[in-house]
From TrEMBL, chains A, B:
Pfam families assigned: NUDIX (PF00293), WHD_NrtR (PF21906)
SUPFAM superfamilies assigned: Nudix (SSF55811), Winged helix' DNA-binding domain (SSF46785)
Stretches assigned to the Nudix hydrolase domain: 7-144
Domain of life (superkingdom): Bacteria
Protein name (Swiss-Prot/TrEMBL): 8-oxo-dGTP diphosphatase
PANTHER family to which the protein is assigned, alphabetical: ADP-RIBOSE PYROPHOSPHATASE, SLR1690 PROTEIN
Biological source species: Mucilaginibacter gracilis
């Protein structure tokens, strides 16, 4: 492409924060880098945007190359552009996040050699990440916390049928605080968007708990009003 | 800076969507460009990010240069990165928005020659904007619409004391639809976050309407709950 712009020693990249919920823990998908800078460090799946692809296409491609995951709805949440954030040049990065249901069913394995491996890590035990990825992760979880109050994100992470204990563990993980069990259940059930099923947990050695489903229609009816145009 | 990155013919820019409310109309701040490409077109205030400044610093600088406005809280809302969005090269743009109170009191005048002038334009009568700025504007107003349901943004645009008619005009402008006057007033007053003042509009030739104030503390009490960690 002919260009009238000054040549910048600059580029842009994509970084992806993929959240999943498994065994009572909120997890995030990381890769172990195989290249300098930050060789052998854990990082968010991310890479450079090519000159001939939109940032949305780049996000899909990069996530696939580094984790083998595809067909995932990712949402852009923030762009990070501190001057010194990349040791090799001026790189601003557009960050996306996604919520996935039942992470055990998704195989995660890098397609390129750029990453040694990909793995789910509990958000409570994250190592120091490469670049400014710890800051990017922190921003994404703050975003998640805010959305918890007005969007049904918890139900995108849980299996279709879940127990109230699972729901509480997920809220606690996102909010990063313990909640009172009695109050939590009372409050959650009082909204009316949880549908009690005539089914119990299977395959547990302890006392099986009741299963619930999420009634999305009721949720929106409660939390939206006629002054709110969109969900 | 020594760099190991490939040289990209690329750059990043900032665009600002500044909303104001005046005389019953929702307005946005535009500049008339003085340079190619898009000479003489109307555009959002925007320009390139320098290599030695963060994107936040660039946003503040660029808004000041193009409109004379400063000390404004702007919030990043989306980054636009279609391949062909800039005719001169690959440029992705980070978009910010801000809400300003009482726009008549803010002088808007470009500091640089890059823009011929800056002016408030009603969102209902916008010309076709330069670059993909019409799309950026459309995205910003969708964002505003969504936030109207759970954040007190209307009250950041209105003067401290306002009439219910002003409030309704603002809601109508943001939602882009007519609302029933009776239902709107009933609903708004039922929340309890509007405080009726012992004062009426001044300087109007028609029947003066009652003035109201917004009770922010009550608003948050109503729309937040103990499962919502932040405002």
């Amino acid at each position: 492409m002919e260009t009238g712009l000054p040549k910048f020693d600059s580029a842009f990249s994509i970084d992806c924060v993929i959240f999943g919920f498994e065994a009572g823990e909120l997890k995030v998908l990381l890769i172990e880098r195989n290249e300098d800078p930050f060789k052998d460090w854990w990082a968010l799946p991310g890479n450079m945007v090519e000159n001939n692809e939109s940032i949305e296409d780049a996000a899909t491609r990069i996530l696939y190359e580094l984790t083998g995951l595809h067909d995932m709805h990712m949402e852009q949440f923030h762009t990070f552009g501190a001057v010194q954030r990349h040791p090799l040049g001026r790189v601003i990065t557009v960050a996306y996040y996604a919520l996935i249901r039942i992470i055990g069913q998704k195989e995660v394995k890098p397609v390129t050699k750029y990453a040694k491996k990909a793995a789910w890590r509990s958000v409570n035990e994250l190592p120091k990440l490469a670049y400014d990825h710890s800051e990017i992760f922190e921003t994404s979880i703050q975003k998640l916390r805010r959305r918890l109050g007005y969007q049904p994100i918890a139900f995108e992470l849980l299996p279709e049928k879940f127990t109230l204990t699972q729901l509480q563990l997920l809220y606690e993980a996102i909010l990063n605080k313990k909640l009172d069990k009695r109050n939590f259940r009372k409050k959650m059930l009082s909204y009316g968007f949880l549908k009690e099923l005539d089914e119990k947990q299977k395959g547990v050695s302890y006392r099986a708990a009741k299963l619930y489903k999420f009634d999305r229609r009721k949720y929106y009816k409660i939390f939206q009003n006629d002054l709110t145009p969109e969900n």
